[in-house]
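Chapter summary example: a protein plus thymidine-5'-triphosphate.
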Amino acid sequence: MLNDSRHILHVDMDAFFVSVEEVLDPSLKGKAVVVGGDPDGRGVVATASYAARKFGIHSSMPMAQARRLCPQAVFLRGSHRKYAEFSEKIFDLLEKYSPAVEPMSLDEAYMDLTGCQKLQGPVLPTAERIRNEIRSKVGINASIGIASNKLLAKIGSDYAKPNGMFWVAPGMEEEFLAPLLVGRIPGIGKKSSEEFRRLGIKTVGELAMLPKELLEEVYGKRGTRLYWKARGACDSPVRGEEEDHCSVSRETTLEEDSTDPRFLESVLSYLVEKAAGQLRESELYARSVTLKLRYSDFKMVTRTHTLREATSEDYPIFQTACGLFKKLFTRRTRVRLIGVSLSSLTRDRCVQVDLFDKMTRKQRDRLYEGIDKIRHKYGFRSILRATSRRGSPPRGRGDCQHF
Ligand code: TTP
Ligand code: MG
């Protein structure tokens, strides 16, 4: 039996961009509405109303194709500013119900309601209250999945769409998952579904019958994850956005969204220099480096790497951040925000004594002391790594802030 002690919600707005447009112009309600790029250019669909989805229109389809499928639909270009404003209202509302709200995108969040019963009452009526409040105060339908972990809550909200609520009762996890198509599992896209189909595996139940060793042999670490996912197991915590005093972070929203990897790496280099400089100022060393990217569609991705030893030097941190960037950055979508966070902080370096490296370490320490002194006297930009120059913000612009 899986861990049934947690009460996790996955809250996701229905057809979010279109729903916002409907609030602003109620005459759109019930119509086939498509928000996206230019139908005459190479624009793609951001989202479509459920009425438009009946014609086969879906996110990331070329707008021109959407128009061919449903010429009578209303086509809108949309405004991220408006969507961000609505999103803020929704998150303010969610945060009243629990301190642990983890935003996943503009319209989607995990919430942990474990231990909130005394204050809020039982979890199911609370989830219904959340849905009602979003509808009455913001005007938008939300779907909610409720389960003992994030994986099942996410699958639950997807299952409940549109405008529904689905509870995966503790103990029913495997029974619920077994008949679902494997594509319902987050992380199994069209390509993997097709691959599994060729192997004769269509449902999650069929996937769950494969031995762990076999999955690991074929898919490596991903195979281990698939094995557990097929059983509905997931112990990832809901990470609230409360201020983290145990990390040093820098991020910046770009003046213009970009897909240029050299420019983005240069911004990253600048942010690393800033964050590592602050580490040294606070006499701290970090073992974990996290890269954060927010794309132009507001989807956010993060990835963390743990170093073998704690450091406050720019170069190893930059190299690690670049490695993470190469893994995360797909180039298909423009990047809107980039950030780096240094965590697992310690006061000492806990270095393994390396006789051969001793001299160079001393030299490097002196180098960073020198850099920090110059900056102290003449300002941060008085001395920058060559890799940071393109990515440093123009003078006078309030550049980077904490996460
Ligand atoms: P989703 O939650 O994936 O989709 P949705 O809210 O439109 O529809 P539903 O959840 O009911 O299935 O994404 C939220 C918003 O993000 C969506 O309204 C538009 C935007 N978006 C894009 O811009 N591009 C994309 O490829 C996707 C999937 C979403
Ligand atoms: Mg949504």
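Key point: The pocket of magnesium ion (ligand 2) is lined by residues 12-13, 16, 107-108 (CB under 6 Å).
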